[in-house]
Structures are given as C-alpha cells and as structure tokens.
Amino acid sequence: MLTERFKELESEGIVVRKVYPEIPVRIEYELTEKGQELKIVMDEIQKWAERWT
Questions:
Q1: Which of 1, 12, 17, 20 is the most exposed place for a label (fewest CB within 10 A)?
Q2: CA angle, corner 51, sides to 41 and 30, nearest 5?
C-alpha cells in the first residue's frame, strides 16, 4: 500500500526514487521541485486545520 502511494507520487513528479545497489537494496525518495512547492501548501493547510479543528 505504501509502495503504491510512492509510485503514484513518482508518476506525478512529486518525488524521485533513488535505488542504492546494496544488500539489502536501499531505496530512498526525495521531493522534486514540484513536491517542495506542494509541501509548502500542505504545511499551510495543516496550520489551518490545527487552528480551526
């Protein structure tokens, strides 16, 4: 389920996936520029929710 969400975010250009050839394989996700801009919006929504709920 979490993997599916990361695939969706990757396909939308919100994160990039980095695979490291280690044993066991290590995978990291990083926000793209688009993802960083979305984070700003989401942070503001969180602040609003904390104030009004």
A1: 1
A2: 30
